[in-house]
Every structure is written in structure tokens, then in C-alpha cells.
């Protein structure tokens, strides 16, 4: 009976705990910073982008948003705002690719999206161009972007 008592009943004395080995705290090793390239922007979500592509995409997005607001007939409801911002982004991606001839990867990095998302946006806008009113809107937006940035894919040669 003594054996069962020692095995199953807790003793009144506490057993000393073994010492815990303390590991010295070390600072985490950060990855090296990308080399600074003159005329480029380093983004945390992607590689170093040429400033021209990044800024061109931002300008196209702003121009697209302004033109959509000019064409809009009413103040968008809360649920419509998200849809409108998605359409603005898709149209901007399409115009950047078609008019400015920026690669899908660079456009994706500029908008914080993947290149496949940019390809999908281009397909969606291309499918919507069957509507004459939408086609006129995209054509006018393409003319504005061409007049702002010059010849497609580069600067105007004067």
C-alpha cells in the first residue's frame, strides 16, 4: 500500500525545478537594403521600379478618376464607391498598358497588384468596349493620356 500511496498521491514537498537555460536575446537579422539607383523608387512590396513607370501609372489613375467623376451623373452611394474605384483602377491599368506600353509586371507593381490581375483588368475593359458610350469614354481618355505623355511608349521627339 505504501507503493501506491507514493505513486498516486501528491507529496506535500515540492520538487525543485531544473534550471532553465537562458538564451541571450539577439537582434533579428534584416535583409540588406536594395542598392540605390538614381531615378528609381524602392517599394516594400516589390523590386526597384523606374520612377517614370510608377509616376505615369499614378497620373493615369488620377486622370481616369477625374474623368469618371465628370461623366458621373449622381453622387455614388456607399456600395457604388468600391465598384467605381475598381473600375477606375481597371481602366487605368488598361490605358497604361495599351497607350503607354508599360509591361504588365511594372503596372502591377505600381498598383500593388499582380501581373495576372492587370491582364484580367485589360480583358475586362476590352470586353466592355463593345458598348459605344464606354468605347467613346476610353477613346477620349486615351487621347488625354497621349497628349499628356506624348508618343506611346516614350517621350515625344521634337
UniProtKB/TrEMBL annotation:
Q: Which residues form the Chromosomal replication initiator DnaA C-terminal domain?
A: 56-125
Q: Which SMART domains match?
A: Bac_DnaA_C
Report the InterPro entries cross-referenced here.
DnaA_C (IPR013159), Trp_repressor/repl_initiator (IPR010921)
Q: Which organism is it from?
A: Rhizobium herbae
Q: State the residue spans of region: Disordered.
A: 1-41
User: Can you say what this protein is called?
Assistant: Chromosomal replication initiator DnaA C-terminal domain-containing protein
According to the record, the segments passing through the membrane are none
Amino acid at each position: 500500500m505504501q507503493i501506491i500511496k507514493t505513486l498516486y498521491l501528491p507529496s506535500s514537498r515540492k520538487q525543485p525545478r531544473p534550471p532553465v537555460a537562458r538564451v541571450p536575446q539577439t537582434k533579428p537579422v534584416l535583409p540588406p537594403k536594395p542598392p540605390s539607383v538614381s531615378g528609381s523608387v524602392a517599394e516594400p512590396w516589390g523590386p526597384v521600379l523606374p520612377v517614370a513607370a510608377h509616376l505615369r501609372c499614378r497620373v493615369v489613375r488620377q486622370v481616369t478618376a477625374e474623368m469618371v467623376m465628370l461623366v458621373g451623373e449622381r453622387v455614388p452611394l456607399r456600395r457604388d464607391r468600391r465598384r467605381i474605384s475598381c473600375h477606375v483602377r481597371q481602366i487605368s491599368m488598361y490605358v497604361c498598358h495599351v497607350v503607354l506600353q508599360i509591361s504588365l509586371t511594372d503596372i502591377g507593381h505600381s498598383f500593388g497588384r499582380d501581373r495576372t490581375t492587370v491582364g484580367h483588368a485589360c480583358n475586362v475593359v476590352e470586353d466592355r468596349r463593345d458598348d459605344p458610350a464606354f468605347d467613346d469614354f476610353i477613346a477620349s481618355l486615351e487621347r488625354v493620356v497621349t497628349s499628356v505623355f506624348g508618343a506611346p511608349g516614350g517621350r515625344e521627339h521634337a
